[in-house]
Amino acid sequence: MVNRKHFLCKFAPLFRKLMKKNFLLVLLLCPAFLISWAQTCQQRIDAAVDSLYKGYDKLTIFDSTYVEMEESGLSHVYNHQLYKILTPIGGRDFNVVKMDYDPLSAYVEIRMVKIYRKGGLVEKVDAPVLDYPAPAHMIYWGARQKMVALGRLEPGDAVELVTYKKGFSYALLQGDDPDSKYIPPMRGHFYDIVPFWDKQPRLEKVYKVNVLTAKNLQYKIYHGNLDVTTRKDANRTIYTFTQKDYMPITTPQNTLANNDIEPKLLLSTAQNWEAKSMWFYGVNEDYGSFVPTDEVKAKVDDLLKKAKTENDSIFILTHWVADNMRYSGISMGEGEGFTLHKCEMNFTDRCGVCKDKAGLLIAMLRAAGFKAYAAMTMAGERIDDVPADQFNHCVTVVQRRNGNYQLLDPTWVPGVRELWSSAEQQQNYLRGLPNGAKLGLTPVSKPENHYLKMNAKTRLDKNGTLSGTLTITAEGQSDRTVRYVFANRPADWQKDVEYEFFAEYPSARLKSVKYSDEFTYLEHPVKITYKFVIPNYAIVGEKEMLVTPIVAQGLYIFAMNHLYMPVHLEKRDYPFSDRCSRLVELTETMTLPAGYKQIQFPQNLSFGEGSIGFDGHYEMQNSKVVFGETIRLGKRVYEASEWPAYRGAVGNQKYYMYTPMILKK
Prior knowledge:
By secondary structure, this protein is α+β, with helices and mostly antiparallel strands. 22% of the residues lie in helices and 34% in strands.
């Protein structure tokens, strides 16, 4: 019987040329082998104990990948998988096989699909392989999908799948060789990111890579252990990574990405990030991505007429690109991927994705006399120290007169009073510099840079009606969140601002509403002021009244992302993230009705632990109650050990939301 674990490595060099032409020919030439392999699949299906995987819809019996790298860096990827359906939902959700690819940079084939029915019947799926444009939103780069329909699957059925792929995820400049478009952007190098985690249980996963020994492949395993074997054959080295009996983990909301906490494998023939940095710089300079045209120079001169300082110039140019270049990716063919489009195209079209916005800003900064470069980052995940292709976002870096570099992100700052979005703090990045650069980490932004303040002066009458003035101000990322009320047309802004109040207090009457609109966001922080009357605000009894300060009740709660965190959890096992560092200050002075006094306040609470702090208090000042609450959350990404303090701060704020003070006649 054939040992499946060694199949792909042993036979792929022999089969590859045949498989590229006609996979069916290979099947016909090796009937004895295939019969043995089919028996192995059936035995594995029968041996899988479904009762061990209750609560899951599908079981991966094995997932085997064999990768063969050529001298150019072009890689051939053969994948062999076997799945078992555990529930009707699993059968419904796995009724098609799909492969995504970009025809500018990758080629894929669905080579064989078999269904092993629960009753023992084996069916080869003869349905046609459909090739069609992939669904797209905002980025229309010509991505496609290949798909085969499997039909109805029942619990106990299994699906065997064989696929082939060559190429990579991004396209670059194409050469005359028909296979050149499949060669990775960093020619002659190989890199891969291999998740060894899944959403469903898996019995075995094997990843085998065959590379030239002279390429000096380096690898590292994160967040777990894999069995590793290495075998040298002539001038090539074969690495095999194996994992058995994997079970998914369950994580609460706001846990870091799976790649940051679960097993993964990184491989790269690039020796360090400095080499990647110099390559990224060179490939764009050689293409001429950032050469400003005469039209761009004239526009820059016009924009900077009122600029008095270095900060003024950087601020004006960054926000002009952010606000005047639409985010919409349209395939430009040659030059997609790591090569940034040329300045002339970006300035003319005023349309593109992150790399287009970053590229245009670089060209405009250079036209203004600055040294500016492109940088790559990874939004939503950590970049680890093996220089694989761990990037999904492109930004700009400018060198200040003092020699320091400053990150700019024209993609994430439209409508934001920042030059670099602090929703990207504690995020790795790599600058493309002439002499190379090491991997960097964006700094923490102080909570004071992202404050949300609510201040109210109110009066409570004996019938429970509350009247007064409430003012909301915000800065940084909190400013941007509050400004979401201006998401509609200017004609609707008044209605939308009023709606935020009425959504919380439907019976309220607004005497006036004043606000700074979206168009003024660069001039000053947002400010919204309500003058209001709310009948029956307090709960009134014969001799007592229950009332909560209006600032404590969760108005504009969407600007306090921490209040959506699951504080019922006593502990977390993995790091977690908030949207941004944040400072919330809530203050209110409430005049009580004549004849009433306070008999019970919620208790005062205060603590500080590391970057997290909370302070809340009530006090009487003659006939007035003064309430104050401050929540300080010092960063975006937290360790699991910081959860008790974070949970305490959020829990304390919710305590004041739901615990009224008691007044007595």
